[in-house]
Specification:
This is cyclic-guanylate-specific phosphodiesterase. By secondary structure, the chain is of the alpha/beta class. Helix content is 53%, strand content 18%. It is built from 11 helices and 9 strands. The chain has an 8-stranded mixed barrel with strand order 1-2-4-5-6-7-8-9, surrounded by 5 helices. Helix 7 links the parallel strand 6 and strand 7. The chain is globular. The protein binds ligand C2E and magnesium ion (3 copies). Ligand C2E binds next to strand 2, helix 2, helix 3 and strand 6.
Length: 284
């Protein structure tokens, strides 16, 4: 009967829900343990100047290789960390790791800047400014070398508080970039109001260059707009020569993507930087 079918449907539905919920709770418990036992890693992806393809910076990206499950994508564990509060210890650890790595690179003669992703919950947490200051002091990295990647979600509520924090940190020399630009809240007036330095064009637009006229024209428009506002621009997710050429011909300043270099552990990055600088020397 219809009633039985409905009941079966409900049973199936709730079993599927339970499985989802169980998986989430399990992952959360595993993640908590991974943070405590320092099983997470930070990988670094080069940021290059488009014109020269020289590395000017790196982005720190959290990595989790679980002993049984294998690699768990940040797209999966970052939302769980954000929902559970684990993003606070996780983010603090990534920040420390990233700053101390960058300081080491500088001492080895590679003056790169480091970009660290900051979630809404971290930025809104009351100790955030102090965390940044103490971490930079402890790792002896100058404020100018830290770039915080925030998203448009921070411009929706508590704008006065957001502006206050960005102003204080900017005055100390920290830079701010808008990650995944073009995918979120679309009122652009905040670009005038907030002291941000860089727009990162979301990789979904870059992926469409060459086969989607809208994506190509959006990318061009964002580059032109960033210029008008005096902002730096980083194209994300550049995978092909054709995309690189497009960005170069439209005057995009900086880029990131598999075409230049994938996210990699510190030791690989060191090799990558050395080769990069050797090539620069032979070209000059
Ligand atoms: P995101 O900040 O936009 O980082 C860029 C993502 O694009 C990274 O994914 C990177 O591996 C990937 N990517 C870079 N170049 C290419 C390319 O050429 N092609 C493709 N297909 N992908 C490329 P990942 O590492 O999986 O991170 C996903 C997201 O998770 C990040 O997006 C970021 O929002 C978040 N995330 C990662 N680490 C952290 C962290 O330490 N803290 C916070 N709050 N979020 C993080
Ligand atoms: Mg990012
Ligand atoms: Mg991000
Ligand atoms: Mg992004």
């Amino acid at each position: 009967s219809a009633k039985d079918a409905g009941r079966d449907h409900f049973k199936f539905f709730s079993r599927a829900m339970n499985a989802k919920l169980m998986e989430r709770l399990e992952l959360e418990a595993e993640l908590r343990q991974a943070i405590e036992q320092q099983q997470l890693m930070v990988y670094y992806q080069p940021v290059v100047e488009v014109k020269t393809q020289q590395v000017v910076g790196i982005e720190a990206l959290a990595r989790w290789n679980h002993p049984q499950m294998g690699w768990v994508s940040p797209e999966k564990f970052i939302p769980i960390a954000e929902a559970s509060g684990l993003i606070l210890p996780l983010g603090e650890w990534v920040l420390k790791e990233a700053c101390s790595t960058t300081r080491q690179l500088q001492q080895l003669g590679h003056p790169v800047r480091v970009a660290v992703n900051v979630s809404y919950q971290q930025f809104r947490h009351k100790g955030f400014i102090e965390l940044i200051n103490t971490t930079l002091a402890q790792t002896q990295l100058a404020h100018e070398y830290l770039e915080l990647e925030i998203t448009e979600s921070l411009f929706i509520d508590e704008q006065a508080q957001t502006q206050y924090m960005i102003d204080i940190l900017s005055q100390l020399g920290v830079r701010f970039s808008i990650d995944d630009f073009g995918t979120g809240y679309s009122a652009l007036s905040y670009l005038r109001r907030f002291n941000v330095h860089t727009l990162k064009i979301d990789r979904s637009f870059i992926g469409g260059i060459g086969n989607n006229a809208n994506d190509a024209s959006l990318t061009r428009t964002i580059i032109a707009m960033a210029k008008n506002f005096g902002l730096d621009i980083i194209a994300e997710g550049v995978e092909e020569q054709e995309q690189h050429a497009f960005l170069q011909s439209h005057g995009c300043g900086y880029a990131q993507g598999y075409f230049y270099g994938k996210p990699m552990p510190y030791n690989d990055l060191l090799d990558f930087l050395q080769v990069d600088e050797m090539e620069a020397q032979t070209e000059n």
